[in-house]
């Protein structure tokens, strides 16, 4: 594995988290509390591994940002709007997810449910846009080599 492989691995982890987050949502709606718990804890673990991979990649590339190769003003606007919201909400998720998990783990399910109504859509958005950022940067509009 090389440093160039890490973004692909991170995208796969984000995609896996997305599936687990959605599964957890469906499971709790079906009243399957234990399966919901397993799915959400798994999503949390996968997201934590992603975070380690993301930070490791940033360290290994010495903080150099991957340039975006999309030249169309419309595509650039979509990408940078998505990237900005992804970054801001990812920062929020780093606090919201552990806080929401803590309430459930303590058995405070009423507060957990209220917080999860906010945390769930933000976490889902961050997870999905993380995969999209990967596709925008590495698959659909990679920057041309200099």
Automatic annotation (TrEMBL):
Pfam families: DUF420
Species in which this protein is naturally found: Oleiharenicola lentus
Record key words, sorted: Membrane, Transmembrane, Transmembrane helix
This protein's record includes keyword Ubl conjugation: no
PANTHER family xref list: DUF420 DOMAIN-CONTAINING PROTEIN, HYPOTHETICAL MEMBRANE SPANNING PROTEIN
Top-rank taxon, per record: Bacteria
InterPro entries reported for this sequence: DUF420
This protein's name: DUF420 domain-containing protein
